[in-house]
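G., the chain you wanted modeled:
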Amino acid sequence: METSGVSMMGEICDEESVDALMRLSSSGHRAISTLHTNSVCDVPKRFFLFRAQPFMVADSLKMAISQRLVKKVCPRCYIEEPVPSIVPKAEALTTKTAKIITQVMIGRQVSCLPLNQDD
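Predicted structure as tokens:
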């Protein structure tokens, strides 16, 4: 345990790690860890699957953050296109916001010929 009251744990993957994390958190320490779920809403359910007591989850869980990984597109396959008109009434927006929306470009992947060719 660190002197600052913040402890970092590895991935929560079993009942033992959940129990240790809950005990550490309920004793007043800030505990940080990772947990794989499909959404942030599944975090308490995952703790319950690892047999955590509901009162411990309610007492210990203060924050959960979701992370999504984004696919990196090959620069040879990438083309930029303007954003389709998503705002039907542009006059409802401020002129500054409307100008920003018209300048936004989105990327789209097209076939990557150099990578798909058999040499």
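Helices lie at 15-26, 43-49, 54-60, 95-103, 113-116.

Shout if anything looks off.
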